[in-house]
Amino acid sequence: MKTRTHRFFSMKIASIIGLTGALALPSMVSAGLKVGNPSRHYEITVIKGADLSIMDQAFEHYSVMAIEDGKLTAIPFQFDDINVKGLTFVPGAVVKVEGTENVLEANDELAFMYKDMGPKGDASAIENTEGDVISEFEINEDGTHRYAYLVKNNPQRSDKVYAHYDFKTGLIETETYTMQFDPNNITVWSDWKVKGFTG
Q: What DSSP state is assigned to residue 111?
């Protein structure tokens, strides 16, 4: 199957927390590639279903991989159904899913961390990967090209965890911050702490 390349020159990226752009952070390297804008280290790449080649297919057999040490390796990702209000669908919630749950449709989204993208995979890496490489995603920023790959029927899944939420205590912890919520009302929060921030 021929791999389809998607080039996102406009950077389809959403910030996890807006404050990161204001922090005085050093230049970083992730996946062996220089990150010119430090805030990119905290951002995610979001791709709409309409921009993918697997529209109207169940997404349970698809995953995202990137080159690490010369071979394709699983990175954290998620497919998000969108509800009828245009927000992320939550199974069991009052607001219904738009379309069919767990089937990729135009407004649904694929998300993964920008920093987990890597260098371009060569033919050997692609051919020696279990499953089918469906699409190549490319972002070019300031002359640095980053790549990730949409793969079908590969059993690898990353064990990285970027966020943990304790439903009993209401504490959420990520790589960059912790925040305390009222476990009975998630709209009530306090004690937001950004890790490594002084000032």
A: E
